[in-house]
Each structure stands twice: as C-alpha cells, then as structure tokens.
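Worked example 4.2. Below are the chains of a multi-component assembly; read each line carefully before continuing.
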Amino acid sequence: MNVIELDRVTIQIGGRRVLVDVSLAIRRGEFIGVLGPNGAGKTTLMRGLLGLLPPSAGSIRVFGHAPQRGNPDIAYVPQIRTVLPDLRLRGLDFIATSMRGERWGMPSLARADRIMIDKTLTAVGARGLAERPLSEMSGGERQRLLLAQALLGEPRLLLLDEPLISLDQHYQETVVELVRRFARDRNITVLFSAHELNQLIGALDRVLYLGNGGAALGTVAEVVTAPVLSQLYGADINVVNVDGHIFVLSRGRDVERSDHLHDHDGNGHHQHDHRSHA
Amino acid sequence: MTTMATATINTIIAPMLEYDFMRNAFAAAGVAAIVSGLVGYFLVLRGQTFAGHALGHIGFAGATGAVLIGVAPLWGLVGVTVAAGIGMGMLGERISGRDVAIGVVLALALGFGLLFLHYYTAFAAQATALLFGNVLAVDRAMIVTLIGLGVITLGSLAAIMRPLIFASLQPELAEAKGVPLRFVSTAFLAIVALAVSESAQIVGILLVFSLMVGPPATAQRLVTGMWRGMALSAGLALTEAWLGIAIAYSTDWPVSFCIATLSALGFFVSRGVSLAKANADGHFQGDTTDQDNDRSKSRRDLRWRSID
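Applying the procedure described above to all two chains together yields the following structure tokens:
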C-alpha cells in the first residue's frame, strides 16, 4: 500500500514554483532519505504532506486522502526550531504541551498521558530528560526530546526535517539509528531530510533527491548517478564512491558539504567548524 | 511570633485599613495585579512585551479621546486597546519589521493623546493619573468594574490557554497539528489589551510593565513548570502592588514609584540568584563536558577532512 502518492504536483511559494510536476509513490514502512540543495523543496514537500501548503496543480494523497492539518497519523519535527525562551520548563512538561495541544481550554496531563510520555522517552533512551529543565539541555538532548515528542501517539508517518543539523557526528549516528530501529519495529514510514547522503546511507531504503523543481526517487544505485543528479542540480555532477561513502561533486567541490556553509542555525562551534573547512 | 504578627497588624496594617480609600486601593490593586501577573506570564513567554507596552500607549489616545467626548476614560482605554490588539494580531506574526510598525503607531497614538488633551485643558490632573496611575482615588464602582473585566480577561485566557502555550513554545508544530495560529495570537493580544487597561488603572499607562513584565520575568527565572510559574507571577505582582501601597502610605512617595521599584528589585535579585546558581552547579551539569566533546570531535572531523 502506498502511504504517500504525488501525482503531477506543483507547489508554489510566493509565486516561485518550488516543486514542478512531481509524481512519486512511497510505500508503507519505507525509510526515505530526502536530499537536495537548499531551497530544493525538502521543507516544502513536507509542508505539502501536512496540508500546510496546498498544491497549485496535481494531487497529493497521504494514506489515500488529501492532506489535512492535524492528522494524528503524521508526526513532524520541523526544521525551524524556535529559539526557546529562557524558561525553566522540564522536558516532561515541554512534551506534554504538544499532547492534544490544539484543543481549547486549560492544559492538563492525565495519568495515561504521563505513562505514554514515559514509555516513549524510555524507547528513545531519554528518560533522564523528563525531569531536566529545557534550558540546561545540550543540542543533542533537545533533539532527542523533540524526537520522543514526535513519536508519541503512535504515528504511522514520520516527517523529520533536517533533524541532524547542529548535531555532532556521534549524535547524528545515534539519531539516525534510533529512528531506523523505532520505525522498523513499528512499520512506520519515514521521510528524513538531510544534507549529506552519507549520514543516512546505512539506514535508508530509498533516496529522494530534489532539485530545480524536480524529484528523483529510487535506490541509491538508481538515483545517485552522474546523469540523474546533473539534471536535478542543473550542473555537471560527478559521483565518487570511496569505501561505501558516496561523494557528490561538482567541478571537484563536494556540493553536499559546501551546502552547510549557508546554514545559519545559531550553533556557534558548528559554524566555526564549517567555516574552517571552507 | 504570633505576638509580633499581631503587633504588626495593630501598628502598621490596621491604621491603613481604617481609611476607605486605602481599602479600595488594596482591593483594586489586588485584582489588577493578579490579572496582570497571569496574563503577563504569557506575554513574557511569547516575547511580546513590546506589544504590551505599545497597547498601553495606544490606550492613552483612547482614554483622552473618550474624556473629550464625555465618556469615562477606562472605556476609551478598553475600546481602543482591544481594537489595537486585534489589529496587531490580524497583521500576523510573520510580517517583517513588526516592531517598527508598532513603534510608529505607538508614537502616533501618543501624539493623538496630546492633541485630545490640548482641546480639553481642564484635563491635566487626569492626564497625570492616566499616565502614572492614581490607585488612591479608586472608588467602589471602579472596583466592581475591575473585577468584571478581570473575570472576562482570565476566563478568555483559560479558554485559549492550551493552544496558546503550544503555539508559543512550538509554533511550527502547532500549526501542523491544526492550531489556528493567527486566531490564537489575535485573541491573546485582545486579552493583553484588557489586562493593560486594568493595570493602567493602578500604576498608569507608562508603568504597566511593573505589573505585567517584572513579576512574570522574575517567576520564569525562579521556578520550573508552568503552573508554579503562573502562581508565582501572580503572587509576586500581588505582593509588589500591596507592599508598594503600604510603603507609599508610610513614606508619602507615589504608589506607582514604589511598585515599579519593587518590581525591578525582584527582577534583578532573581537574575542574581539564577546567575549565582548557574555558577555554583555549572561543573556538575555535564553541559561543559558535552561541549568539549563536541569541539574535540569537530577538530577530529576537520583533520579527517583536510586529509580528504
């Protein structure tokens, strides 16, 4: 059964066509790595699936229906994570605000909710974060908390928008492995966007490359080739395979890594890292 | 202990409460402080304190304009601030330069306030009362009005509290989950407008921050958890308002000055406390080691890349 179906979909943002005439189908339980340069439409695709950006042409189907905001089957970790105020809020309370957070009235936390939060935090190995204030957590710990939050309520589709940004390599591997294991155990479909293919290569079933309005979905061997990527990027692309690591190069420059230079995500030592690399 | 407490009541508090105007002042300040402390908690949480400040200034034009046409200033204040709050909310949160737009409108409103004053020259004393508050002149009818407005304000806040918290902490996710962001933020600004109107009756338009921002900012630094934070914020606002009146009574300084000073004092003391705390447990939080790990990993990564 197809969880996601796009049929000749075009999505515009402010007059710019970000996705143009894209058709694809994603099956249940697949782990899809979503890649492509900045502005290629990774976030746009996810917002389209969430019902936040209606297509200007074509049709999107999620679980066989047109996307609708607030679908409890879909879990989402947005890329833009609002800078949290200087608030001493425990991890548990933070997560609790998202549970039925769309309902009117005063917040409350039922015993069943508390048990579910506990179970999910344990499943992602973040039980210790329940009692710790958010303001004292490291980037990796916050990310784990957000992941746990997304997995509450047994979703069937997981949309993760650049969850590896601002994490060091060790945490990146942990997060990818965590998602892969959690999703496989529960047959959850995953769209996981990232900057580098190599971050996901051990976990993904198929890869979705976006670029220049277009999309290419398939196995790594099918999609990550010089002709397919050259067309998507609109530039001469070489693909080099070294010991199971794949490098996508344009005129000798690693396009995926140099993408990082454009990220401003407020994480001091990481920006420093990339600048030194440049 | 009890004898001391009794002595305090007999010698300090009881004489104050013998006066009708003092009882009224305590009652009115109590209502406004609790409303301001609770609404202010969310204002600080959302980082919208500037909008709250602007609403007060815009309200000044409303209050002076109302007097000019023969309406009680409170209703001019309520009408214009609520309308302005709704207007700001409808403009949306993503409009760039929002602060600039608010600033321009704020200045324009003060200008209009001045114009209305110009045509109503007998109004100078009331203008001072509007700008800096005059809690000692509150009467019974005003207290009833303040309670009524307070119930409406807190009732509305309770009705939208859950999505408001969700939208404040994680707007992108809240939007995806179906929270109507614009409606929630518009409704919230209307609620802020009501709280500003209440608060302005006590400390005046220019000093609404002392009840709406000082106490919640202090509370958010001191305690973990929303409910405790809200309770502490309301409690602090109430304490500062009442203590301010008591100090003013015994020193003859203006009430609003006393409240503003206590509010600032609370905030800076809490800052000092939380900074000292952070220094004391900094080494045990594991945060520093985490960052060190990050850094050494980045360095390793770098070396690897340069070889590559």
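Take a moment to check your reading of the output against the notes. The radius of gyration of chain A is 19 Å. Chain A touches chain B through 44 residues (CB under 8 Å).
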